[in-house]
Design goal:
The protein is mostly beta strands and 882 residues long. The protein is 2% helix and 48% strand.
Length: 882
Amino acid sequence: MKTQVKFLSSVAITVFYLLIATTSLQATTYYSRASGNWNAATSWSTVAYGNAINTGTFPVIGDMVFVGDGHTILLTAATQCSGLTIGQGVSGIVEYPNFGSITLTVSGSLTISMAAMLRYNYNNSRTHNLFISGNITNNGAMNLFSDNNDVVNMVLNGAANSTVSGAGTFNLNIVTISKGSRTYYVDIKSAAFLIAAPPSIIAPRMDMLKGTIVLNTASVLTWCDPTVTSYTIPMDVILEVRTGNVAMQTNCDTLINSGKIYITGGNLTIGSAAGIKGILNKDAGVLDPEIEVTAGTLTTRGGISSYPGGGNPFVFKISNGNVDINSGTTGTDLIPLYIENIAGSQFVATGGNIYIHKPSRTANTAEIDFGSSNVYHNVTDGHVYFGDATTAYNFDYMPYISYTYPNFEVAGAAGTKLNPKIAIASRMLSIKVNVGNIFDMSTSASNATSTNVSVTSTLDGIYAIYNDGVFEERTASLSLTGTAAQHIYTVAGEDRFYNLIINNAAGVFLDKPSSIGGTLTLTNGIIYTDAINLLTINAGAATTVATNASYVSGPMKKIGNTAFTFPVGSANMYRSIAISAPAVVTDEFIAEYFYVTPDPTYSRASHAISIDHVSDMEFWSLQRNAGTSNVFVTLSWNSSSGGVTSLPGIIVSQWDGAVWQDNGNGSTTGSNLAGTITSAVAATTYGPFSLSSASPGINPLPVELLNFKVINENGLNHVMWQTLSEKSNDHFEVERSLNGQAFQKIKSVNGAGNSSVLLNYSITDRNPGKEMVCYRLKQVDFNGDFEYSATKCVKNNAFADVIISPTIINNDNINVDFGETSFTKGEIIITDITGKVIYDEQVQNNIVTINNEDANFNNSGMYFIRLIADENVVHTGRLVVM
């Protein structure tokens, strides 16, 4: 028989809502006395089940109703109550009649006890109605469908939240969700209810008009209409999946979303196995369509896109959980993740994962496009994974320089590739390339279409770039622009970049060797290297001018036959060393700056007769790593060099393994405050270089700071220093650091002004705060010029010159303490200043003792120590052997 859909209009729904709102405050509780009609007083008692006492009335609006075991109550007219409980646990029935069109309105909750029923089972072509504003608890049977033209249609309405629960059975026709607004929810905990009321266009079905529909059953179920190709979530509806696994539209192409899809812990799967369209977001009025995932998984076997045709903004938010896109066998012919560039659109990612399994079936479309200037963007975390485990695909993303994508990972089968769609600059939090895969910085695998990619954060709090495949640099620029420290790492080989731009005040760390083929641009922030994780400037490559805010801390290499200035520094100071042009393009030189005294490793007392004194503040290491070229060396100075008072009297000196040799003064630039000096002769041997003075009365460099040490005693740190002479010395500032990098002033001590006698200074730090603490002195002149001392660190009554991780304590043996670093196995490697390995040991403990003889320390001096822990996590530091 043809289905009849005789149903109350929205006007009628509103009328019933108003009746509920005006419920009488004189509520009565009724118990069934015997079987009978609802509106017969003889059917009810106001005392107890089966009791004859009654006032001569029957339940009306506002009353509470209980139908007992063995009693059947027939609805013979429009009936209202504030709450209805059917059955005591054995039986009990409320029944619609075989005449009229009866409406039962329950302004509160409906409870059907075990073995009880709410039913209509006649064959008289009748359509009845049931309105419920409260909860439904069904542990018996709700049979509202007799045949296609004998039905009861149900409306869940009212300005209140509702729950549908119970272990009973449901036989439904049309269920309408029409709450007072979409802020009121219907929390569906019964899988049987969902199965009996799917989203459909034929009966049985659920019509979503207004409210939040919460799918909250742990069951695995299919909830869809098998006869249609699309289904619409209206504007005033939120479809929330809280628990369970729900498959929707399993035989359909499209879910049209004009409301909100909200995943808060369950799993919702959209679409047929083929996928095709997926979720199309269509603007239907005042409220923009929205998808939000805070936990659980949203899977669409097609894409997630704005509805084709234009003018359809939508909001996409993910803070946790997963969004699985385009996993169908066929997949979408639209952009898999596309937000139209129109006012009202949003892309918000503060966590969670987005998986894009395959590209669009249509050529020349990107796989992710979240709109530009008209879209509100807020990306602070989250990951986008490109590819699946079965097939290698080529993916594109639409680049935007002003807006940031989440962390990108090229994660599919080996051979999967990701590149920008068009040749404009783009930004993302980080980039990870899995084994065998490719991230190409050009749009069409050519240098002509290379772009600028800016990485603004890290994958995991550490890595900005993690490369286990191919990072194809082309002639593109990679900018590191984070606000926290960023690390660059490749699993095998070295990281290769064409143009590398450093613009991160927190610093960039090389965890593998890296090379530059174009230009290293030092805008802001320090690059941290070591003897193993070396930065190389290849032949033909260049660097921009460094500053105190941006330089290379650690060694770096230059290959080529052009003059080069190494942008090295330390302790927040850029202190260059430069070489003249080598003769051969394959020649290699490695340089590093040390803001520490050369003593005792390279004794200042051992020098050529033409040198009066060698700088006590600093030195450079310059090594010729390949080739035979001899080059002129240019050193620099500034106000922290200890005092340059005579440019003609300054000398470039070189340690030859035994004494400091005089390489002369070929030329100088600048002033006493800052400048450079070039050696008068080309260097023929290489190693430490420093500034020296030809006369005792000039260029202190400085002679006045005789001693500076830190001693720990009973939890107090005593900072002590001596000066042999002072000139225009206003005061000292004692600075403390808990990490060896960031210093804060803790005390100011007046200086002597001008002095030529030995003076002693000290302070006591009574609140050091950590086991390992570092100190340095800032000496300030009357005119505001200042200079820093070397850094001194103290731990557990033991002394170390430089704070490092691991912590090094030099005694008869070397105790290596890696603190709280957690690993199951590791390796300690010690190298000398040239990079030669002198000690290599496998370790499993955080504290290791190394015998001096075992480590093969041939000379006192500076060494490098590193720990390789699980998963290639590298900790490095410097070791001074006294």
